[in-house]
Model the fold of this input.
Amino acid sequence: MIGGGTVGVVIKASIGAVGALVMAPAALSAIGFGSAGIAAGSTAAGMMSGAAVANGGGVAAGSLVAVLQSAGAAGLSLGAKAAVAVVGGAVGSAWTVLSSWRGP
Done:
């Protein structure tokens, strides 16, 4: 078992960062954002439909759907990878704090 303390926080933050980097492409694919486009009948298709309705028929450039489709089709950019790693590391650090918390 990985304990608390500084070493535990660093280890769990690292696990979170690496795990997030590995899982992000799989998660995008699982919800329908793939290299061949948005999969019919998927969560991504529903998101795209909702975005198109909200924007009068088109999906706005830079919108969440557009960014996720770009990442699904071409992979994550360096900046996106850094952001995913930071979030994953924060989750890993929170895991350490929450798993060692004993409550009032």
About this structure: Residues 40-99 form one domain. The longest helix spans residues 5-30. The longest strand covers residues 33-34.
